[in-house]
Amino acid sequence: MTSDREPLYEARHIDKSYGSVVALSDVSFTLHPGEVVGLVGDNGAGKSTLVKCLSGVHSPDKGELLLDGAERHWKSPRDTIAAGIETLYQDAGLAPDLTIGSNVFLGREKPKPGLLGKLGFLAQKDMEREALADLMQVGVEVPPSSRTVSQLSGGQRQAVAIGRAIAWARKVILLDEPTNHLGAYQAGEVLSVILAARERGLGVVFISHTLPHVLQVTDRIVVLRLGRVVRDAPTAEFDAESLLGTITGLIEI
Amino acid sequence: MKPHAPAASAAELPPGPQERRTAKRGTAMSSVTDKAATPAAQRTARQADWLRSILGNQQFLLLVALAALVGYFTARNSVFVSTGEIAGMLLVFSELILLAVGETFVIVSGGIDLSVGAVAGFSGVVAAFAMRDLLAGHQSEALVLTVGTAICASIGIGVGLVNSALIHWARLVPFVATLITLGAGTGMAIVLTGGAPIGSDSAAIGLTADRVGPFPYLSLSVIAIAAIAWLYLHRSRYGRYTFAIGSSAFAARAAGINVRRHLTSVYVLSGLLAGLTGMVFYMQLGSGAPTSGDGAELTAIAAVVIGGASLLGGVGQMGGTILGALILTVVSAGLIISNVSPNYNKVAVAICIAAAASLQALRPSGRRER
Q1: Residue B255 touches partner A, C-beta closer than 8 Å
Q2: Number of folded domains in chain A?
Q3: What CATH number has the domain bearing residue A68?
Q4: Are strands A21-31 and A36-41 parallel, antiparallel or unpaired?
Q5: Using CB atoms, which residue from B3, B25, B247 is nearest to A141?
Q6: Interface residue B238 vs chain A (CB under 8 A)
Q7: Residue A253 has what pLDDT?
Q8: Given A95, A138, A168, which is nearest B244 (Cβ)?
Q9: Which residue would you say has higher pLDDT here, B39 or A65?
Q10: Domain at B57-361, CATH from 1.10.4100, 1.10.3470, 1.10.1060, 2.60.120
Q11: Closest-CA residue in chain A for B232?
Q12: Residues with pLDDT less than 70, chain B
């Protein structure tokens, strides 16, 4: 739907190995504004590694990353966050001992006004209140934001992580298994939040093992197998059966 | 501050988010209303909540324990609450609290610093050499102590940097890295001094006797440092990052926090406070004694653990640490004043740790099930 426009975020010929294990090999990938791209593949196909390269956690061994057409070399997630890219990491993005509010504002805390703020003191009450409002606004309902994340259920944690990513993202959202730990109803909520983000013109990368979700919400699907892209096509060209076959390799391309 | 408010306002969400949200709130409420079915059950539940929140408030329990201990030792010997005795206890407390404050930051960040006692001993000795020479040259006491403090602080910062280098470059776990500097510091202090105390500075000892009421000036300055540290751990961005890293280093890094730089500063802070403790030892003894810090790291860690911190990181309270250090001070002073052999001191410390740790197991919020 958007192939005539400039890509928002692009990876070209990415290689990444962990020691002797090749995680990604010659992976290319584009994401347009207002597009949801599904990233699917079996366990170990390289999905999470690709996300970590795109989010600045890992640097690729080879290849280029381009945001708005300009080549970027991320040194750490700090750089991607500053560039407007938000990431939900599979099961690992929140600090469990911090409150919900502190997690939503982690890394971009609001200082108190005046001298106290210059000395490093935080406007905690403001942050707790704004965090709750942000989460509500993206359709995430959570308990009082003064609770610590360790006191939340798996679904609630996931909701906080998604809410944080959506609330802060300006360009790109990378979602690694956002519907994990969620019941059918909550997963539906997440999917509508993703669609709302697309309406805002954000680019969304959606990783999931739940193929019906992928077929339901994405515009395009990239299939990874053993670190390589084996198929990159509009979602309309897949059905549940052909997608599964492509992932497992039963259908040869 | 925020780049933009999320535009996905409720109204834009497809289809009919308002109904969905109401429905959700309905389900969330239902469990609460079920519980409230009978007033009697409700009351029991409330009492249980109250009991659990009391049991869960480590600092309140520590305060009660501290008051009970003071009351008990006073009943045994009323001298215990005399101005002089309190001043003496505060000086002992001053030897412990800075180490415990630094250790709190380290433990909350998910690490441990075993080197603090050795740093205190080693820095005190090195500074004592310099101060002895200055005194021999008839320099003023103020200058002598200022130079000594600067030397102690620099050595502490230096060891903190070494600890951090061992952790981040040599990739040692903090326990091993600081075990190395513990051994090196203790050994060097003995080697440099041959085991004997360095210097004889009676003016410094005299200064520790100056006080307002029962508060020696030395203790007041140390308490001021602890108070600032309390504010920074619990109210500032620095403290927030310390908790975040101890809770999940990955989450902290993913949120854009420079984890390595922050941890370096934490070990430097711990080293700095340990160095200053070397100066506290010097002032009390009037000399730099190579063994003055031996085992102090374990007492400091005990204070932190009694205060409710988790050695897994991410959990801890400066108020708890301060109360823990007070309890340990009161217990050891109380045993002496009750004519119990000081040999029992370590057993008493062990009992304090055991009691505090078992209370934590009763805490209402079950720790992370990750």
Answers
A1: yes
A2: 1
A3: 3.40.50.300
A4: unpaired
A5: B25
A6: yes
A7: 61
A8: A95
A9: A65
A10: 1.10.3470
A11: A121
A12: 1-42, 45, 55-56, 362-370
